[in-house]
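The protein record now logged underneath.
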Amino acid sequence: MGLKKQYGQLFLTFFKIGAFTFGGGYAMIPLIRREVVERKWIDEKDMMDIIAVSESTPGAFAVNSATFVGYQLGGVFGAMMATLGVTLPSFLIILAISFVLKQFEEFRAVQYAFTGIRAGVFVLILSACYSMYKQCKKNWFSYSIMVAAFISVGFFNASAILILILCAIIGFCFSSIMARKDSQ
């Protein structure tokens, strides 16, 4: 495939993802996975790595994901095209809505629509969680970290950033110890 065509496909693919996904980055995970894995642009393992890196780096998850996929496929210009593609729909939609939302927010139909959108976003996030769960190693350590992180953030309002850093450090240490044991 020619470079121009590849850049155009990156832009259009991420434009579609940005235009038809409500609820932010986590709700986009199933669509991003379907679009880039089924096209064989990225394999499942790389997709999981992109999700992990996108979550742990500053910035919006969807933008980070698009940037990483675009860079992997087309270098710096590929990253720019994918990032522009995923952000442009949101910008245009928010620009259009900002002109009319105040006038229509009291209508019951609009309130119902937002209720439906929230429910749909919840399902997309659950789908992303399930998909990530299927890809992760399942052992006592993984379950312990998951439960501890959930309780810390969900019930004790611990900093999600701090918990993410601690989980990364603990996971690295545990993996290093297990690798040493396996090599002995």
Observations:
- Residues 61-104 form the longest helix (44 residues).
- Helices lie at 3-20, 25-38, 44-56, 61-104, 108-135, 140-156, 160-183.
- The chain has a mean pLDDT of 85.
- The chain has seven helices and no strands.
